[in-house]
Amino acid sequence: MKKTYIKWSDNDLDFIRQNYDKLTDKDMSETLSKISGNSISIGMIRRQRRKLQLGRKRGRPKNTSV
Question: What gap in Å lies between CA 9 and CA 36, rounded to an integer?
């Protein structure tokens, strides 16, 4: 399996910072792949989120309506 290494631009990292709580990792990878022209996987997005210390809530969302 060939690993792809890319140099993350400031614009890419800013996109992740601004959208990590609004979009899924899959949606961010598809959008960034279109914007940058590089093939960006879901794992690459997840790794950058963790490096930037941008966490998400764990588990499934709970139904809060009564």
Answer: 9
